[in-house]
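If you are new to this repository, start here. Below is one unmodified record pulled from the training split, so you can see the exact layout before writing a loader.
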Amino acid sequence: MVGQNVCDAIATLTNAQRLKPDGSNFTDWDLFLRERTREIFADHLWFTKPNPHVADEQLGRSLLLATVDASMVRLLLKQTTGHNMYDHLCSRFNNITRAKQMLCWEKLKNFKLSDYDSSTTAMSRLLELLDGFTTLQLELNCENVGGLVLQLALESGLEHRWEVNRRVGQDLASGSRTLSRRAVMTDQILKHIDVVKQQLDMNAQAPSSFSARVPDMATYNMPGPYAHAMELYHPDFWPNLPPQVEGMAIQGMQCWNCRLPDHFLSKCPVPRRTNLDRPPVVPRFNNRFPASGGMQPVVSP
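And here is the target side for that same chain:
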């Protein structure tokens, strides 16, 4: 019975939809698998949560194994449930980035019925867009939608937005599940916006100690199609270079305890100082030899 159901479900499976070992067609495979689970279990998110029914679990495992490449079956059989199999494949091939989530949100905002010939086609496209949020592990609730709106409301092209996007993407790609889940929420993104704005304001007010003069390349008209590249990369095309750079002296890394550059604080052989702001005191080692005893008489045998 299970085999017949699986054969009927994968009757329309093509080679382009079968999951490849490198995961290059993960999106097409995931869409096909969700369509089949919607038909069999009436739930397109069936693999995203544990299932207590033994018969349905056996059918789901068989369906998933039949839709992947044969070289991956042995590795997937080590997983105990179909949910674990799906999670394993997602962790390997489904690279979630904040840029993909924001692009999916933009596509959903720009969805119009007038762009499609029939309501059936429009509904199919809408369901595909909504399934994309599940693939990207982004639940459409108040917190996540608010985070998307806040992040997209920043003016494009500014350093403020670039830094906020970098921080959110770094949190989302972290190994901590708690941090990656909170990275897309409204309060976390709002905190990044405030911190970045404060840092940029402080940098704008503080005087710069680096007084190197950068030559204006726009004033030099150079012929040829590679003139711009030569200006950036070839030293012969850098006019009016300053002879030296006036700024703060740069020191190499050194130990905070004894100020030697050949090791760090954790490997310092000198006893730890109580106040690292004071200069180190070189310990004095006195060569003390044991005093010789009194003269002893030599007794001959």
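Two things worth knowing about this chain: Confidence is low (pLDDT under 50) at residues 209-220, 228-233, 244-250. The two ends are 108 Å apart (CA to CA).
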